[in-house]
Amino acid sequence: MLEYNEETRVHYIDGIKVPSVSQLLPRDEVWVDDETYEAARLDGIDRHSRIERYLDTGDTNFDLMLEKFAELVDKRKPGKLLLHEQPLFSRNHMFCGKPDMLWESETWDQKRSFGRSVKHALQLAAYDILREENGYGSNNEWWVAVWDGEEWKMRDVFKKYQDSREWFLTLVRFYWYYAPKQRTRRVDEKEDQLREEGKTQE
Q1: What's phi and psi for 171, nearest 5 deg?
Q2: Phi, psi (deg, nearest 5) at residue 34
């Protein structure tokens, strides 16, 4: 059974809590103040929401960003939109993810900036693993889309990092190698604590 809690963003496969793609990726250091970070986060949410609305309705509502997005899709011709912002699960590797856009012949992820291509390649590699396992087919067309305020810019993140699928699966293996031990340690520590509390009460 596959479960996804939208509020907590916790994913389960057959009752087992599994990590998301974002949890498995290396974390970036943030060198901005809290106010700037929060403004960027909200802007990212707004852009994603507008793209989702367009993909659901086909209506740009005279929004320049969406009109240019429609032009981008028409120009690139990535094929039929298979899904967007829907959780996918991998029973083979026990992780989950929520791709921005899976097209028939390409996978797109929307970002505020191009940032670290190697991390983006790992993320889209994860989505490719998910799309293949879920019957949507694998491809090597992994693209990051960035809106610069006037135009959409696209970057191919597969070309430079073609081993990203295996790199990502290594991250998954590390997670499942260490996670059970961490849980066991926490249980042991809890039992030790209870024993100490029992001694104190005596």
Answers
A1: -60, -40
A2: -60, -40
**Helix intervals (H) in 88-163:** 117-133
- Distance from chain centroid for Cα 148: 21
Beta-bridge partners for 102:
83, 107
Our measurement of the distance from residue 146's CA atom to the centroid of its chain's CA atoms, rounded to an integer in Å, reads 16
Three-class HEC string of 156-200: ECCCCCCCHHHHHHHHHHHHHHHHHHHHHHHHHHHHHHHHHHHHH
Q: Write down the pLDDT at residue 39.
A: 84
CB count within 10 Å of CB 104 equals: 13
> 2-176: what fold?
Lambda Exonuclease; Chain A (3.90.320)
Token digits of residue 160? 């430079």
Question: How distant is the alpha carbon of residue 92 from its chain centre?
Answer: 18
202 pLDDT exceeds 60?
A: no
Nearest to 120 by CA among 78, 88, 167, 179: 167
pTM for the full predicted model: 0.85
Contact predicate 175/22, CB 8 Å: no
Q: Sheet containing 2-5: which strands, arranged edge to edge?
A: 2-5, 10-13, 16-18
Q: Are 99 and 83 in contact (CB under 8 A)?
A: yes
What's the CA gap between 99 and 20, in Å, rounded? 11
pLDDT at site 83: 96
